[in-house]
Write a structure and sequence with these properties.
- The chain is of the alpha/beta class and about 325 residues long.
- About 60% of the residues lie in helices and about 10% in strands.
- The chain has a five-stranded parallel beta sheet, with helices on both faces. Strands 6-7 form a two-stranded parallel ribbon.
- Helix 3 links the parallel strand 2 and strand 3.
- Helix 12 packs across helix 14, helix 12 packs antiparallel against helix 15 and helix 15 packs antiparallel against helix 16.
- It is globular.
- The mean pLDDT is about 90.
Amino acid sequence: MQTLNQDIKEKRFKRAYLLFGQEAFLIKSYKHRLKEAILGDDTMNYHYFEGKGLNLSEIISLADTMPFFGERRLIMLEDSGLLKSGGDELAEYLPQMPESTCMIFVESEVDKRCRLYKAVTKIGYAAQLDHQDSAQLARWAAGILKQEGKQISGQVMELFLLKTGEDMENIRSELEKLISYTLGRQVITAQDVEDICTTQVTNKIFDMITAISSRKTRQAMELYEDLLILREPPMRILFLIARQFNQLLMVRDMMGKNIGRGEMASKLKLPPFVVGKMTVQAKAFSRDQILSYVSLCVEMEEEVKLGKLSDRMAVELLICRRG
């Protein structure tokens, strides 16, 4: 991100950029920031293409055209799939693209071995924008609050992030709620967070599994009822529980191999602070216990599909299971 910020600040742009990764908020933010910094209010020299099956000859022809009454021509390609396959024609063209043209690729999936990826990185910059860790999220959120004249302690910020999760779009939305709720006050308290911020479904699942590991069946059932009140389908809840136990199994195995939190986060594609919470949770189970829960999730899903159990009853049996 430092390279992107520097290019935007200095207005010295490369001929090609690639934005990809897990954090949709950052991708969207840099997509708009780059467009605004490169073109400003100029709409005549902006060309946007989306989806697969693009006419690459047309795009190359546009890229070769000098900007109309402007310094640069900007071509943005989003979710084209060209960074996985089919981008060889552009890969051959990019090295000879005029300096007056900037091409931005915004992709959800990227193969770093493909020719187009290598061509982009040779003449431009590829920015992998993934989930931020807790410290980065806390600094970012605190910065937004500071701009609004708000103060928040480290402990309250930790509570806030535990409720919101790591999705920056959701964090931004919850911050706006907090700012409005505390209108006329500078200091944001833990009670403010509890009163106004919504706990994410995945966090409720995490709490549910913590309750299961502590044999607090009533608490786990209450969390389940909360999710049903929020109109979460039981089969989605079952899926999220199964995913959590599968992740715990992987965490447990990596812990046994003395793999560090950063590498775990990379392998699981989760923020490091989430992995930190999961390592604590994984220690509450033996490996055999986690495996048995993984198997039980599969069994419950099959029972529902065969019509032997209702979806709601399947999750209840899973929560109430002992051992």
